[in-house]
Amino acid sequence: MFVTDVIFWVLALTAVVAALGVVLVRDLFRSVLLLAVVFLCIGGFFVLMSAEFLAVVQILIYVGAISILFVFAIMLTRNVRQGNSPNRLQIPAIFLSTFVLAALVVVAFGTEWNKIPPEQKSVIDLVQINSVTALTKEDLKDADQSLMEANGMPLGLADLLIGKFVLPFEAVSLLLLATLIGGLALARRQEGG
Amino acid sequence: MSLESMLIVSAALFSIGLYGTLARSNVIAVLMSLEIMFNAINLALVAMAKFVAPQNLQISLSNALTGHVFVIFIITVAAAEIALGLGIILAMYRNNESVDLTQADILQH
Fold first, then answer.
1. CA A47 vs CA A155, B8, B41: distances in Å
2. Which CATH class is domain B3-96?
3. Which of A37, A97, A162, B57 could connect to B18 by a Cys-Cys bridge, CB 3.0–4.6 Å?
4. Which residues of B touch A126 (CB under 8 A)?
């Protein structure tokens, strides 16, 4: 466990310092690059927490697409030099975010979390690691058999997306269509303008 | 690595993003801070999926994946939001030659 702890602390430190850089560095272009570092660190956390598929999605979408979109937006607007200047809400914003941080920390340590019992830990890890591959009976033969008898084979992410969560899934497809049309309408040049 | 330490990192990222969202005057910087907040939430969701016992595990083992499904939805919505947000920023820049939030007081042409 020593190695995962070291990786965790390195990632945590990098993520927080890079996030501070994003909001404090004056040069917008540098802050986009730091934002990509934050995204990569989050991907690393996903790998640490046995969510490999999400880590790949994170790197493809955030590091690959959203960072590039930000770079384009910065290059296309001319006042890059003017940079990342603060507005008048500086002091209240510091107070509010410190308050939110304190509240979240108090809640994180004050709540009695219903942690996963040790005998279920291995099977849940197995289900999460294999979220996009088909598990076989063979993979689960060491798992807690009382769990297995009750419900049979676990479903993967894809089965959940078009099974239990099909309604939000369809809503998201509608959202993407709306975004597409909205993006086209925004990008279109006004007639005569 | 424990649930609490993960939540602390997530809380730190969230409040940094909150500060950036409130205190920056450049719209692009505000959107970047929003992205940091989204990522903090995703981190907390995955940590919950990993460390907190899922409900009704006896009924379906795939309840252990609910947090992951939520993260996928959040990533999709965030990507849509950023694509549209940057389109709005470019339209705003075309109209008044500035992306400064403190000077943007109209949304129309």
1. 20, 18, 16
2. mainly alpha
3. A97
4. none
